[in-house]
Design a protein that fits this description.
The complex is a heterodimer of chains A (496) and B (643).
Chain A (H helix, E strand, L loop, with lengths): L1 H16 L6 H24 L10 E9 L4 E7 L3 H18 L7 H20 L3 H22 L4 H29 L7 H7 L6 H18 L9 H7 L2 H26 L1 H6 L1 H20 L4 H22 L8 H36 L15 H14 L6 H16 L8 H18 L15 H19 L2 H18 L2
Antiparallel strand pairs in A: 1-2
Helix pairs in contact in A: 1-2, 1-4, 2-3, 2-4, 3-4, 3-10, 3-14, 3-18, 4-5, 5-6, 5-10, 6-8, 6-9, 7-10, 8-10, 9-13, 10-13, 10-14, 12-13, 12-17, 13-14, 13-16, 13-17, 14-15, 14-16, 14-18, 14-19, 15-17, 15-18, 16-18
Chain B lengths: L2 H22 L4 H24 L2 E7 L2 E6 L2 H24 L4 H20 L3 H19 L6 H31 L13 H18 L7 H6 L4 H10 L1 H11 L1 H6 L3 H22 L3 H21 L3 H29 L15 H15 L5 H16 L1 H25 L5 H10 L12 H16 L8 H8 L9 H20 L6 H4 L4 H99 L6 H22 L1
Classes of the chains: A mainly alpha (496), B mainly alpha (643).
């Protein structure tokens, strides 16, 4: 089943490429249909999902691939990856619906995004390090073409910077993977086996170095401070759906790597370096929020809030490494919050970037001071943006609160000094409300005059994302029931 | 699920769902009707749950539940919130004429959040409702969003209260670490050190929401919202929830040695200083706002003094009284277009019902016996005297100040207008908005109910009913001595008389709400924005340039390598090939010149020899004879010598 979910979009992409005379409308709707079909398959998998035993995966598929290095085509999901797979499917469907209004080479764009969807889902279900790495790099390649091909502003330069920076990071990641392979006995790239073996048990220097390599690679992708400077230009110059996928899906590949690879396979090194990870998380939270506060370009501002939100995740998984007997429940709550934040941020920031895309479409500028009183001509847009802004600042009733409450409760109980990061929720509140004020309230002037309100494609792409966030915010149990067991297992694994 | 449990869920969910739907819809004319029906049902449900005392819970997150329950305290507070919401919405149906769906929707959402706060039994549930109240408050303060300053005031309110709410997040983490779980009733059982953190967090959050010092300034800006918003949120419900939280967690405060006294003193100080601020105000809504903060100081004092019954009674009575006064102010604002006290002179004579209702409220606010706020304030002061005479003195002084500002209102309302006064009042007409010169039925009816409350609700603190309330809340009833009662009566009447006779002082520091907003702007807001700008510049110029610089360095290195490759490596190859060509040319030349030359030379010599050999062939016979003789002679010579 997982192979079908992963490769269905790719097959559709190839089909689209093979039909050069397919009409634009047909191509767009085909994309929507395939994305919807994939989402249906993911939902079916979710309904049939049963929590696997600790250390194993559900819906496993394994086929020999490169026997010489003991690397197999191994797929599987558990409570950490299934929500991310679902989120990916939802975000790509939303992008497909948003792109129903695309007029610039829709067939090629659809094929590219379907390719990206395959690659993204493939990464989240990969249970082999080589497979993970292949999908990791292919995602970078795919996003490069999205930004360079359909971006605006300084697209070529931003795409190049994104590509080189994150690709360099992925090389560090590869070094780490090879380190894991060499230290494993028997040598293997299989994630399940490596998590069982914990290859560097006892050799803290080597383990620390390998962890450093892996962390640097993931830190560039996440991104954490100080490796984040590729993110603002990439987002500012990417098309709306490109930004939504970049923020919603690609950034999660970095954070997912923390809980899937680094934490279980290098528990000793993780425990030794937990404080460094926590500090990086806190710095990302505060720095990201402060720099976002100073922005006048709304898309750049949301990009920096992504740095802030990813910082919460890094903080929480770092706190999970501070072993003390009576903090097991707290650390488990922190990791649950981190995974919830991955899902929540994907939905919310995806929605916000699609809405920012509306600004670009109507008035070709993201500068907040060019607008004013936009709630007059575009009340629906204002309402959607307000909901997205409140969701992003962690208002209860939406998914961000569920994530942030758990992250803070768990982290503060494990390491009280992490309370410093609470400044982040104040700063994001201030910056989002100021943005709402500058763009939507006051006198209608500047580019707000004659602004067309949201059209059907925009409503039906952004709306479901926000509704899902609301549902998670009010009924979190279905999601948390999947994540909590896996989070407990992860905390157990890091304590070995 | 039983009927009462369903009622409890509906109490919270009905206004939320209807409110959310209304806020997003375009329903204009039906909005008020839908809203009033919902509010009425909610009020009825609140009475039902107050009588039945149900408890419900569902698993939520962080190992804790979303648990709701009605006990004696909630049974007092929840119906208060629901009934005041209903009355304010009735008023709004008459007052708010534009964007009605959005207004009523947001008000219902707020009511739902307030009711959830009043019935929450766990920290996640409480924090959930707490923050939603803050968000609806922002949306309602900035309701007329075309006015930038109103939205700014809303942002200030939201961010300030959120800063205080951080305390609840910290408290949640500390409660989890303390081992007692996230249930509000279990918080006092947390382990020693963590308990202090929990208490501190809860205290800060409550003080922020209740606009106590040092957070009071946000309430001033909140007056930019429509008057019904001020009446519901910023007097009766949201700020009151701050006081309610302290009443609810009174056991936690009492279990630490410092939290309860801190609460009592902060409450007393706020009542005193904000009372002075209220006295100095020239704008009716600002006066009422400062008064709200001061009166909630009494509630906070009650919580700190373990007088939950006194505090709760004061909260309920104040809700009724203050909502009444704010609605009256709203009615006058929409009728005359002004809320400046100077422009409201003698207004009680113009619309008698509103005037008399407001008078009842003002007298209650002044603490005139036997009206509501006199009785409840006395209950709190009695507890204060038990604790410390200084606290009692501060409380009594604060009571005197409330009489002063209530008296100020009364003087304005009932002033006989001279010619000069008429002119001044005319000057203030329509200065804030165009007035309708009319107060409708929907705006007057709620005032009657609220005025009744302002007069009668003192029974919650007076025996015999007050004793029942106290026992239900688990306390021994505390009765003020006749001396204390006399003191409060004398103070109230005395100050009222004084104010009637002479105008009150209006010092600048008090008028500016103690300068707290300016201080916050200077000490917190501007430095934060400056830091944000500095870090953004750092990010662009240093970090990003660092990246771009290393990329440029890599490119430079690549170029230098390319040049090296072209000039040095490839040059060496070229030079080598040129050298070998030159060597070859030299070799070819040498080959021609020397080797071949030698051969040619030899050949030339041989040709010479050959030419030389031809010379004797002259054809002259006599020369041949000489040659033959010469050769013979040489031959004979050779023969002779060799032998």
């Amino acid at each position: 089943m997982l192979s079908l979910i992963v490769f269905l979009p790719l097959a559709a992409a190839l089909a689209l490429l093979a039909l050069p005379r397919l009409g634009d409308t047909a191509a767009r709707w085909a994309w929507v249909a395939v994305a919807a079909a994939d989402l249906a398959l993911v939902v079916a998998a979710w309904l049939r999902y049963d929590t696997p035993t600790a250390g194993r995966l559900a819906f496993e598929e394994q086929v020999e691939w490169i026997p010489g290095v003991n690397s197999s085509y191994h797929l599987g999901v558990d409570g950490l990856s299934l929500p991310l797979v679902a989120m990916t499917a939802v975000i790509f469907l939303a992008c497909a619906i948003f792109a129903l209004r695309e007029t610039d080479r829709p067939r090629l764009q659809a094929a590219l995004f379907l390719f990206l969807q395959s690659v993204s889902i493939g990464l989240f279900v990969a249970a082999d390090l080589i497979l993970f790495f292949v999908f990791f790099d292919l995602s970078i390649v795919g996003m490069y073409f999205v930004i360079a091909g359909w971006g605006h502003g300084n697209a070529a330069r931003s795409a190049m910077k994104f590509f080189l920076y994150t690709f360099l990071g992925s090389l560090a990641l590869l070094v780490g993977f090879i380190g894991l392979y060499i230290a494993a006995d028997p040598h293997t790239f299989d994630m399940v086996e490596l998590a069982e073996q914990t290859p560097f048990a006892g050799s803290s220097l080597a383990g620390g170095l390998v962890l450093a390599a892996i962390l640097i690679g993931l830190a560039v992708k996440t991104p954490t401070v100080p490796f984040h400077t590729w993110l603002p230009p990439a987002h500012t110059d990417a098309p709306a759906i490109g930004s939504a996928v970049l923020a919603g899906v690609l950034l999660k590949m970095g954070t997912y790597g923390f809980v899937r690879i680094a934490l279980p396979m290098l528990p000793e090194a993780w425990r030794d370096w937990a404080w460094v990870i926590i500090v990086v998380g806190i710095v990302s939270v505060v720095y990201g929020a402060l720099v976002a506060l100073a922005q006048t370009n709304v898309k750049r501002m949301v990009a920096y809030t992504s740095v802030n939100h990813m910082g919460y995740i890094v903080l929480a998984v770092g706190a999970a490494g501070l072993i003390a007997d009576d903090t097991t429940q707290a650390r488990s709550i922190a990791v649950t919050g981190a995974v919830t934040q991955m899902v929540s941020h994907g939905l919310i920031t995806g929605a916000l970037f699609l809405l920012a895309g509306v600004l670009q479409d109507r008035a070709a500028t993201y500068d907040m001071d060019s607008y004013g009183g936009l709630a007059g001509p575009a009340p629906r847009f204002a309402a959607f943006f307000a909901v997205g802004a409140f969701a992003s600042l962690g208002l209860p009733g939406l998914s961000g609160f569920i994530a942030e409450f758990q992250i803070f409760t768990g982290s503060i109980a494990a390491a009280p000094v992490t309370a410093i990061a609470l400044v982040g929720i104040l700063l994001t509140a201030a910056l989002f409300l100021r943005a709402l004020q500058r763009i939507f309230t006051g006198e209608t002037r500047g580019r707000s005059v004659g602004f067309t309100d949201l059209r059907a494609a925009e409503v039906w792409s952004v709306g479901p994302l926000l509704v899902l966030s609301l549902l998670i915010g009010v009924f979190p149990r279905p999601l948390l029931a999947v994540i909590e067991p896996a989070a407990e297992v992860a905390v157990e694994l890091v304590g070995r | 699920m039983s009927m009462s449990e369903t009622a409890l869920w509906l109490l919270v969910l009905l206004p939320a769902v209807v409110g959310g739907g209304l806020a997003l819809s375009r329903l204009e004319r039906a909005a008020a009707a839908v809203s009033l029906a919902t509010a009425f049902t909610t009020a009825a449900l609140s009475v039902v749950v107050a009588l039945e005392r149900p408890r419900v819970s569902v698993p939520f997150m962080a190992g804790s539940d979303l648990a709701l329950g009605v006990d004696a305290l909630s049974a007092l507070v929840a119906p208060t919130v629901a009934v005041v919401s209903l009355l304010v919405l009735v008023f709004s149906a008459g007052e708010i004429r534009e964007s009605q769906a959005r207004f009523h929707g947001l008000m219902l959402l707020f009511a739902s959040a307030a009711l959830l706060t009043a019935t929450a039994e766990t920290l996640p549930a409480l924090l959930f409702a707490w923050e939603v109240m803050g968000a609806t408050s922002f949306a309602l303060i900035g309701f007329w969003w075309r006015d930038d300053h109103r939205v700014s005031a809303g942002i200030t309110a939201f961010v300030t209260t959120r800063t205080a709410d951080v305390g609840l997040y910290v408290a949640a983490g500390a409660a989890l670490a303390g081992g007692a779980g996230l249930s509000l009733a279990d918080l006092p059982a947390s382990s020693e050190g963590w308990r202090h953190v929990v208490a501190a967090g809860v205290l800060v959050a409550a003080l922020g929401k209740a606009a106590q010092l040092p957070f009071s300034f946000w309430l001033s800006g909140a007056m930019e919202g429509p008057s019904p918003v001020s009446a519901l949120l910023h007097s009766a419900a949201m700020v009151a929830m701050g006081g309610y939280l302290l009443l609810r967690t009174e056991p936690l405060l009492a279990s630490t040695s410092w939290a309860a006294p801190a609460a009592a003193w902060v409450g007393a100080l706020t009542a005193l200083l904000l009372g002075a601020v209220a006295v100095a105000q020239q704008d009716l809504k600002q006066l009422l706002a400062a008064s709200t903060s001061a009166q909630l100081g009494f509630v906070v004092m009650g919580a700190g003094l373990a007088s939950v019954s006194g505090g709760a009674a004061h909260l309920v009575a104040h809700a009724s009284t203050k909502a009444l006064l704010f609605l009256a102010a709203g009615a006058w604002l929409s009728a005359l277009g002004t809320k400046q006290l100077a422009g409201l002179r003698g207004v009680a004579r113009r619309w008698r019902l509103v005037g008399w209702a407001a008078t009842a409220g003002a007298l209650s606010l002044a603490g005139v016996a036997p009206l509501a706020l006199w009785a409840t304030k006395d209950a709190v002061l009695a507890a204060a005297l038990e604790e410390s005479p200084w606290l009692y003195a501060a409380g009594l002084a604060a009571a005197a100040l409330s009489a002063a500002y209530a008296g100020k209102i009364l003087v304005i309302l009932w002033r006989q207008l001279s010619q000069h006064d008429h002119a001044e009042v005319e000057a203030h007409l329509d200065e804030e908005e165009p007035g309708t010169r009319h107060v409708g039925m929907l705006e007057r009816v709620p005032l009657i109910a609220l005025a009744l409350g302002a007069v009668v609700l003192g029974v919650l603190a007076l025996p015999p009913f007050g004793d029942t309330v106290a026992r239900a809340l688990g306390e021994e009833p505390l009765h003020p001595t006749p001396l204390e009662m006399a003191a409060s009566v004398v103070v109230a009447l005395g100050v009222l008389a004084l104010v009637w006779w002479r105008p009150v002082p209006e010092p600048g520091w008090a008028l500016a709400w103690l300068g707290l907003e300016r201080a916050t702007q200077a000490l917190v807001v501007r430095p934060t924005l400056a830091l944000a700008e500095a870090l953004a510049r750092f990010d662009d110029r240093v970090l990003d340039r660092g990246v771009a610089g290393s990329a440029a360095a890599a490119l430079g290195l690549a170029r230098r390598a390319a040049t090296f490759d072209d000039r040095v490596l490839d040059g060496a190859v070229e030079t080598t090939s040129r050298a070998s060509l030159w060597t070859a040319a030299r070799a070819a030349r040498d080959d021609d010149r020397w080797f071949d030359g030698a051969v040619e030379g030899l050949a030339a010599q041989l040709r010479r020899l050959g030419r030389l050999a031809r010379r004797p062939q002259t054809g002259q016979l006599h020369q041949y004879y000489i040659q033959a003789v010469a050769v013979l002679a040489i031959g004979v010579l050779l023969l002779v010598t060799v032998r």
